Amino acid sequence: MTTQQIDQERAGAFAGQMMQLLNHAFTAPLFSIGHQTGLFDTMATLPPSTSEAIARAAGLDERYVREWLGAMVTSRVVEYDPAAGTYRLPPEHAAFLTRAAGPDNMAFFTQYIALVGEIEQKVTDCFRNGGGVPYSAYPGFQRLQAEESARVFDAALIQVILPLVDGLVERLEQGIDALDIGCGQGHATNLMARAFPQSRFAAYDISEEGIAAGREEARQWGLRNARFEVKDVATLNEPGRYGLITAFDTVHDQAQPRKVLRNVFEALRPGGVFLMGDIAASSRLEENLDHPLGPFLYAVSVLHCMTVSLAAGGEGLGTAWGEQRARELLAEAGFTRVEVKQIEGDIFNNYYVARK
Fold it and tell me: pLDDT higher for 135 or 176?
């Protein structure tokens, strides 16, 4: 029996890495609390203040706020002046922690941690027994997804994302039939319907809750050119109906992505466009080593995207299915002309422009 020689320097570095992991992991729920309670938003508007003043401004219990501030100070998020007993959120940090930051608000994403924590044991069972955890097992997931995507759509859909497709805005202004698949709560559909009243928009999703939310928003906005239906897009059978089909952050979750993409191809008119927003990553693990969100993408896949697909007897593409695999499946569906475009500052998404 041989014993493996241990590099003590490397071992010490890894121990430090694990301590950092624990610090970050246990602090992350406090970022979620800071987002949910408005503490980050409140502190961004205040001068250096005591815990009492911060709690009062936020309408919260001072003792909890003070302990929360302890975590934020030791995490180097909030500055502390021990002589004055005051706390300050630097504007450089507020730019990524407040609602005013819009799509740059990273504190928002920490809300998912508690959600996936609720299904951790179910995923652990899947490691032993196979299968997956169904979408229905994730309480509040769609609400968070709707909030997350709305921030991006409000800031960029009409002015930035749609213009990625040459001539698309002009066609929408003139009037075409469009479909959004996996629409969630339908906010993107309603934004497009409001911006382009001459076009007609349909939106499909398997969630009755999401479709109801989309219909209600359309009603509140007085839209007559948006319709919503509960439908599994793997059963889509509307050949040659649409000039535009969109899919935002949904194809990699599908149980039958190949069938969905083939149905999309068939549903487009000649010259129609499929605009697919999906995760910016490589299909090759070794090419994701320096991805700034590499661990996050694979972890989210295990804890949601892959397992939800497997639960439905699906392919389980996973979050980091990557550009190479996406191009492969698009070509298999019939798309021979595919461009991949990106938006400056957006490290999350690739935008695939596939023409029929």
Answer: 176
What ranges make up the beta strands (E) of 75-115? 79-81, 86-88
At 67 the three-state DSSP class reads helix
How far apart (Å, rounded) are the C-alpha atoms in residues 31 and 114? 11
pLDDT at 347: 85
Ramachandran bin of 2, using left for φ above 0, alpha for ψ from -120 to 50, beta for the remaining angles: beta
Measured distance CA(175)–CA(172) in Å, rounded: 5
- Beta-bridged to residue 190, according to DSSP, are none
Q: Which residues contact 61 (CB under 8 A, 6 or more apart)?
A: 55
Averaged pLDDT, 57-80: 97
Phi, psi of 85 (to 5 degrees): 70, 35
Q: Tell me the backbone φ, ψ of residue 257, rounded to 5 degrees.
A: -60, -35
Q: Is residue 38 within 8 Å of residue 58, measured between CB atoms?
A: yes
169 pLDDT above the threshold of 70:
yes
**CA distance linking residue 320 with residue 296, whole number of Å:** 10
Amino acid in the structure at residue 147? E
Radius of gyration of the CA atoms of the chain, in A? 23
